[in-house]
Amino acid sequence: MKLSLRPRTQPEVNLTSLIDVVLLLLIFFMVSTSFVKQSQIAIRLPEADSAAVVEAPPQQIDIMITETGTYLINGRELINNRPETIRNALRKISAGNNKLPLTISADANAKHQHVVTAMDVAGRLGFTQISIATVNDPAE
């Protein structure tokens, strides 16, 4: 008995179907992609003639009182703690607008008289939205 060996055939990869699928995907993505061109408008912005800084009126007024009785209005220290000085500073900062909210915050060791003086001056100027700020004790 003679066994004959068949010649081995080389495996063949058919790329036709792979190419068809890739081309179909390419066509699908080309059709489904939107080619929207964003409209652009040329805008010429104006330039400022001067570099003058205009201070915007404050949205609220903060009066801070230190332990020694020094008053700070919106972060600016007053030259003394007389009621006339506080009154003038409040008029200047508020520009006559007594509808602005006013917050008074004092150091824990500040004298009660300083807080009452600030409240009195603000009340006489017509401020009605006066708040007193407190801080929670972090030890609690």
How would you explain this protein's 3D organization?
- There is one protein chain.
- With 140 residues, this protein is α/β, with parallel strands linked by helices.
- The chain has a domain at 61-133: Nucleotidyltransferase, domain 5 (2-Layer Sandwich), CATH 3.30.420.
- Helices cover 30% and strands 14% of the residues.
- It contains three helices and five strands; from the N terminus they run αβββαβαβ.
- A five-stranded mixed beta sheet has the order 3-2-1-4-5, with helices on one face.
- A hairpin with a 5-residue loop joins β1 and β2.
- α2 (83-94) crosses α3.
- The longest helix is centred in the N-terminal third of the chain and has 17 residues, at 16-32.
- The radius of gyration is 40 Å and the shape is elongated.
- The termini are far apart.
- The mean pLDDT is 82.
How are the SSEs placed, and which strands pair?
Layout: H1 16-32, E1 61-65, E2 71-73, E3 76-77, H2 83-94, E4 102-106, H3 112-124, E5 130-133
Parallel strand pairs: 1-4, 4-5
Antiparallel strand pairs: 1-2, 2-3
